Fold each of these.
Amino acid sequence: MSSKQQIRRTIREKRRALSDDDRFEAGQQVLQNLCNYPSYNASHRVAVYLANDGEIPLDVVIQHIWLRKRCCFLPVLFRLGGLRMHFAPFTNRSRFVDNQYNIPEPDISVKRQLKAVQLDLVLMPLVAFDVKGNRLGMGGGYYDRSFEFLRKRKHWKKPKLIGVAYDFQEVNAIPADPWDVPLDAIVTESRLIKF
């Protein structure tokens, strides 16, 4: 078993063992830490995720985005052109369908979806992170393929990529592959780390 597989297995088990109350509390603390981050406050098009597999739920963050009259988006798997994601508008009236991983996605036409380059900020789920800004996801590569254009940019870095994790998801080092897209910051229940 590779070291990435071991990290995934160990952290996912720990994450799933948390109570609903622990997860909800972590989501509230994440919002408090995000509110101190200028890039979050300046963003108008913010992508979020619906918690799955013990991830930190972003319910209070989503409510905050809506209250501030900002646009909220959810990832939608886009199978044409290499298994990337588009981002669909998300409101309290959105209707959903399950994708191939049984994760709900907004049921909306492709014409109304945004490409990754059109977002200001993305709150990304992850399994593990390290102090260099490397992120270990579930292994599908959707986020890395969708945001690969950021690896080629030297100056204009938009959207900002912020990983959302519990403190215990930090590891010493994640073996990085050449196609991995590093994060701009990590937000946990106790802090926000900029890279």
Amino acid sequence: MNPVLELREVNVSYGPFRALFGVSLTVVAGGSVALLGANGAGKTTVARVASGLVAPTSGSVLVDGEDLTGVRPHQYARAGVAHAPEGRSVFATLTVAENLRLSFHRTHGASGLTRALDRAYDLFPQLGDRRSQIAGTLSGGEQRMLSIARVLVDPPKVLIADELSLGLAPIIIDEVYRTLRAIREAGTAMLIVEQQVGQALQLCDRVAVLAHGAVEWEGPADEAGDVMVGRMFTTGGDG
């Protein structure tokens, strides 16, 4: 199948600190790759490179065959790349509905606002139940749903999801992954950066294991279980 996202021999340095070493990854159209690794392995840096938030020191990033290396993040977005970063990223003093309207008015305009809101509430019914609630009073999991809903209402060509389950209760993680499966079935390709190994393996067809800024192993998800045996993953973000 045709690659929709490619990282080719990507190196990244932050000043004197080397973060990535020759990372190559391919996500095919409609496919899903889980990027796994311990805290500090460089997973978040890979996610940021793949969405244009960090420019490689060397190497290249291609979306649908077009070289986007070094361009601004909004050009990645125009090419169909959506990035759901770790954290909550909500306006705490606004209601759920106001948070969504702010985002959707910019991306869908006044004419598409109602449809976008309905879609968000279909994806996450809990948000519909709390549409009038101040976002800062939501649980951590509900705030995470709110931030994700703003990205997933219109399924992108490629979704880069960075530690979506971080700090969430198991029941909320199940809800988030239910939505990710629905988005994937609709045709969105995915790069899932995750420490929840079980959830990631169920969703993805391929796995890449990152260690010390380099790809240590890559292969089919059904072969990854043996590779992961004995590995310990801690919670928290990485560099």
Amino acid sequence: MRRAVETMRWNGDALELLDQRLLPQSFHYVKCRTAAETAHAIRDMVVRGAPAIGCAAAFGVALEARRLAAQADEETYAPRLSEGFDVLRASRPTAVNLFWALDRMHAVWEASETDTPEAVATKLAAEAEALFRDDIDVNLAIGRHGAPLIPNGARVMTHCNAGALATAGHGTALGVIRSARDEGKRLMVIANETRPYLQGARLTAWEMIQERIPVTLITDNMAGHLMQTGQVDLVIVGADRIAANGDTANKIGTYALAVLAARHRIPFYVAAPLSTIDMALPDGAKIPIEERDAREVTGFRDLQWAPEGVSVVNPAFDVTPSLLITGIITERGVISAPFSQGIATLFPT
């Protein structure tokens, strides 16, 4: 698979993460060598997007295991590696892929409890690499299943960034768009800027330009006007956590977009891997919503436009009820309503 964008690079001794805080003005990789450094990069949004966060966390565990195998004795190895897991788990609360990836890594560790620290580190590194490869395969499958939903000539609106930058490669929502393009379909992307962190303006628009896919950037409050005037054919977004009934947490502003799409009878799709579905939550009411730094709202980088002392609310995500969703595109196919039933068939007990 041709990869126009490399979100992360692994060389066995370090994880290099493309610093998405600096795009598109600067192209720079941040090097992580420990679980703490990886968690810091996740928390500060050097890397973002649910699948990419999961992959990064897995590599963070592998890095910590290798570091401790060289530094710690066998008596302190296990508790210190457990601390590494805890640091990564605490990095961001909403994206369930983070916890799914760490659980997968922890299972490998538990199965290797009689091995030497060096052997455990080797197995954890192999598992992280496998998880990374699996994510690319999953994204390609999501693209194959979702591409038929995009008509030739479609104008596709998306929110935030659910492309290669948010995954190991190809992307979820943007992966569907890429796959439709690769099938020879003509299409254009309408990228919402996605306040307050501007992932649509900085990242999605940049990705589409790299891929030579026509893209038009709009501010978030223009979406309703474009729908009302017949300039949008469908909406595709990613997800950070999906409850068992299909309720979906995604970047703040997604819920409003879904309401607008329903009002104008425009199909609204969610593209996400099965690892984003949290069967432990019956609905979206208990999905934890991350509250981020007020400075993301009062300004951007070195520019501040809001007055000092103003009160700020900055939820990073909102929850879209499943009744507003047309379909959930996964690596095993497209789930339609009733979502509880469709999702349950993919997670047999």
